[in-house]
Amino acid sequence: MTRIRCDRTAAWAALQNCFNTDARNFDLRTAFANDPERFARLSQAAPHVFADLSKNLLDTPTEALLLELARECGLEEHRAALFAGAAINTTEQRAVMHWLLRFPALALADIEHSAIKLVAAELQQVHQTLDAMLAYAHTVRSDAAITDIVNIGIGGSDLGPQMAVLALDAFAIPGKRFHFVSNVDGHELASTLSRLKPESTLFLIASKTFTTIETMTNARSAKAWFAAQGGTDIARHFAALTTNVEAAKAFGISTTFGFWDWVGGRYSLWSAIGLPLAIAIGQQGFRDFLAGAHAMDEHFRTAPPAANLPVRLGLLDVWYRNFHGFGSRSIAPYHSALKRWPAYLQQLEMESNGKRVDAAGAALPFSTSPVLWGEPGTNGQHAYFQMLHQGTEVVPVEFVAVKKPRHDLVAHHPLLLANVLAQAQALMAGKTDAGGHKHFPGNRPSTFLLLDELNPTSLGALIALQEHRVFVSGSLWGINSFDQWGVELGKVLAMDVANRLASGDVAGLDGSTAGLLARLRS
Ligand code: F6P
Predict the structure, then answer these.
(1) What is the dihedral of CA 103, 105, 109, 115, to 10 degrees?
(2) Closest-lying ligand 1 atom to the alpha carbon of residue 268
(3) Mean local confidence (pLDDT), 366-390
(4) 240 by DSSP, 3-state: which?
(5) CA atoms within 13 A on the CB side of 65
(6) Pick from 271, 293, 348, 486: most CB atoms within 10 A?
(7) Among 102-116, 428-442, 447-461, which is the least confidently predicted range?
């Protein structure tokens, strides 16, 4: 597989030229006025997700150049390597196969996608573990005595399950409460424990490595609390979700569900890390969730780039970051259950693509991951949309809206939909007949992702869409989207500082850290 970094291609220079001569002055209002087919040409149906890209600063010739860029960079070869289980996480020498976790259990003879045959053994293990985990989820669901499920994990071992359990709350089994403890800040665990009884609580210790300091500290405190409250049956009240089953056993947990080093933490929701979700929505719900993601995998794997939604979104991301120079993207889910969607995407995209060197370790001369941020609509409208409409920075917005609600409060949903449409419209159209404070420049881009309804299948597809679009931009940037060395330094320093906090030794510390440490100890 040959990967060519985007800035070393002819298309990159052509795009720069296109931007400088023409595209920098692109105007959405003119584009719509000149082209009645714009919506049709710049929208894309994908499994369970419809995307309107037409309110973006992009036209067909630019998209053609971006597609040419993808071709020169070897995107299709890189995608084939992903789906062949090649070790594309090159700094850790690991395959990247979260997509295999949602691949259906097929007999080898029935598998048409030939690359899968190479990972048939892994596929078998995936389904053995999945079946065991779903059977366990079923037991927990049927156990009326267990009312509280506490997931202790951080990063990918928290954000995915938490986001999805909240998102699918309408499908969750009644009578069970789900808690997510991630922070090493004891306030979080203490306030959670204060609402629990040991006999009705199940702790899920979720950690790919089973070494993460926050999770291990919380897990130890939870275990101590359980014992102090008279709890004895660890096998019934604790389960571990980890690739490090040995460490979980050493910790004293015998109920374990494993996964593999070819599943990145931020891509692990589909593995045993998804157990809280499986308990919430049940076996069939979880299988539907996997099926939705698989449908998106197949779309990404097989659709031609020009009609491939993750590809089109990833190319747009490169266009905005590297040519328009937009430094952030605002995530605006118009569904209150998607509260944690922005936080989930922050890890997915910023931990994957927040890199400053290419896969060969050479410093990059261009920008990579934007900052992602946001809140559910309509709340964001009454907080920071002022800046989106009239601030000095252009921030592309990514809306998510759902056609059918799952409540019967008839007055609400039409208003919610009216608001999301109106915001996208206002960003684009602006208001140029008034001056000064009442002037809206408009021409502010947005993408509109539309689901028929928010259910396990569509959520699975929506998440897989985001995973693959991050792959696409990372692929063009020539980076390794699957490692996260950037989080290591802080972890190492925290251990050193913890020792110094205990001893008071400030020798060799910078003046600020030493000063703060002394104040904290005084
Ligand atoms: O610190 C970053 C990170 O490694 C994430 O990538 C990961 O999701 C998180 O920590 C938690 O790791 P673990 O699941 O091993 O506890």
Answers:
(1) 20
(2) 8
(3) 98
(4) strand
(5) 20
(6) 293
(7) 102-116
Flag whether pLDDT at 420 surpasses 70.
yes
84 touches 329 (CB < 8 A) = no
Does the pLDDT value for residue 120 go beyond 90?
A: no
| Interval 157-186 mean pLDDT | 98
* Ligand 1 centroid, distance to 124 Cα (angstroms): 26
Residue 508 pLDDT > 70: yes
Contact call for residues 149 and 178 (beta carbons, < 8 A): yes
pLDDT higher than 80, residue 115: no
Instruction: Output the CA 243–ligand 1 centroid distance in Å.
Output: 12
- The label of the residue with tokens 């029935």 reads 110
Confidence class of residue 119 from pLDDT cuts 50, 70 and 90?
A: confident
Question: How much distance in Å is there from the Cα of 153 to the middle of ligand 1?
Answer: 8
Beta bridge partners of 205: 152, 240
CA distances from 276 to 125, 159, 239, 286, 464 (A): 20, 12, 11, 10, 19
Cα 195 from Cα 155, distance rounded (Å): 24
pLDDT given for residue 78 in this prediction = 97
Asked if residues 340 and 168 have their Cβ atoms less than 8 Å apart, the reply is: no
Looking at residue 411, what is its pLDDT? 96
Q: Domain 109-278 falls in which CATH fold?
A: Rossmann fold (3.40.50)
Query: What residue ranges line ligand 1, CB within 6 angstroms?
Result: 153-157, 207-209, 212, 215, 265-266, 351, 484, 487
Domains 6-73+303-483 and 109-278 belong to one CATH topology:
yes
Evaluate if residue 112 carries a pLDDT over 70: no
Q: Sign of the CA dihedral 301, 302, 304, 309?
A: negative
The pLDDT of 326-340, averaged and rounded, is 98
CATH number (3.40.50.10490, 3.55.40.20, 3.40.50.1110, 3.30.530.20) of 6-73+303-483 reads 3.40.50.10490
Put simply, whether the predicted model's pTM sits higher than 0.85 gets the answer: yes
Which of 208, 241, 483, 491 has most ligand 1 atoms within 8 Å of CB, for mutation?
208
Measured from the Cα of 206, ligand 1's closest atom is: 14
pLDDT of res. 240: 98
472-495 average pLDDT score:
96
309-318 helix and 275-302 helix, angle to the nearest 10 degrees: 90
Cβ partners under 8 Å of residue 335, min gap 6: 167, 376, 400, 401, 402, 454
Q: Which residues are catalytic?
A: 351, 382, 491
CA of 275 to the centre of ligand 1 (A): 17
CA-proximal residue: ligand 1, atom 2 (nearest): 487
User: Where does residue 82 rank: exposed (0-12), middle (13-18), buried (19+ CB within 10 A)?
Assistant: buried
Interval 405-424 mean pLDDT = 97
Q: Where are the domains of the chain?
A: 6-73+303-483, 109-278, 486-521
Per the structure block, which two tokens stand in for 70? 């993808």
Closest-lying ligand 1 atom to the alpha carbon of residue 491 = 1
